[in-house]
Amino acid sequence: MALEFIGCPRYIYFGPQAHRRVAEIMDTIGVRGTVLLLSGSSKTKKIGGMVGDVLRGEGFDVVDLEVPSGVIGAREVCSLYEKVRNKGISIVLGVGGGRVIDASKVIAAWKGVEYISVPTSASHDGIASPSISFLLRKSISESLGPEKAVTRSPIGIIADTEIIKNAPPITLISGCGDLIAKYTAVRDWKLASVLKDEPFSEYSASIALLSARLITDHAPEIKPSLEESCRIVVKALIGSGIAISVAGSSRPASGSEHLFSHAIDYLSLKEGFKPAPHGIQCGLGTIMMSYLQGGEWEFIRQKLRELGAPVTAEEANLSPKIIIKALTICHTIRNRYTILGDSGLTENAAYKLALKTGVIEKEP
Ligand code: ZN
């Protein structure tokens, strides 16, 4: 039997005012010295400032670093890293959404220190997982080598539900879409284990499915402005992050529905349009991939509706043309076996799938 390693987050704080506990976590971990605090350029900068004040008040040295707005790739992360390359840093704190937490993961890995994730929204499971976004990983792997894109799980997560509650409503809905995606992701994983002999972890798959079920069970009550809803979604996202940590790969959390979302992101860069949030695209992908898998796609669609998530291209502000294009190329996006098989969908099959599931109304 092969040796297994599981690296999971150790300290998880969530609830109102959780950000005030940041110094307490540092003490528990035994970290002193200089904290590198990354935050965004607008809203999250203010929240980063609040967290920085708590740390300074407790005697920590804090180095602030602002992640610029827009898509981040290898170039952006390298220029951030250059600013702290020669600085002694004890730990990295990422205060923000996906981009900031991704940049924190990479910089912590390059500096050889731990990081704490302080999400300001609950939009995807990257807040708790070792993985970084598909486009960033691709950009780093291609320009610096795949070993430079290897990142770990956060040692701590501080999810202040009062902060998350005030994030734009679409972020929480997107988090729900990213979680519902686990239904199709786990089925794809099982398929790959049967057809391609990929290692499959029953334990990890169960945690991922449990996280998805938490959302579908509570779908009618989940409302972005409610603290209780934020708690449910954050718990489920942390569950998904742990499933990824246990598997040692994003397999339990990311299947053909994620390939579909990655394909849209890829096309958005190539063709210059604005993609929908990650979890929104994954939600649409889950409806269609569930149909292909012979799963309960109507149930998925219904639950997304109850959550107020887009279930059509139009509601997601995506053109039907892009949906079809993404469906036909998504099997090529990464080397991951799914229901799409090795050759993917033909254009006609893609039309039929999108029409049948109501994602598009008529052929573009
Ligand atoms: Zn995801």
Structure description:
It is built from 15 helices and 6 strands. With 364 residues, it is α/β, with parallel strands linked by helices. The protein has 2 domains: 11-66 and 88-167, Rossmann fold (3-Layer(aba) Sandwich); 173-356, Dehydroquinate synthase-like - alpha domain (Dehydroquinate synthase-like, alpha domain, Up-down Bundle), CATH 1.20.1090. A 6-stranded parallel sheet has the order 1-6-5-4-2-3, sandwiched between helices. Helix 12 (278-292) runs antiparallel to helix 13. The chain starts with 10 loop residues before the first strand and ends in an 8-residue tail after the last helix. The structure holds zinc ion. Zinc ion (ZN) is lined by residues 124-125, 178, 254, 258, 278, 282. Residues 124-125, 178, 254, 258, 278, 282 line the site of zinc ion (ZN).
Derived from helix and strand composition plus strand pairing, the structural class reads alpha/beta
Put simply, the count of helices is: 15
Query: What would the average pLDDT be, to the nearest integer?
Result: 94
Order of helices and strands: EHEHEHEHEHEHHHHHHHHHH
Distinct ligands: zinc ion
Strand content: 5-15%
Low-confidence stretches: none
Say how many strands there are: 6
Large-scale geometry: globular
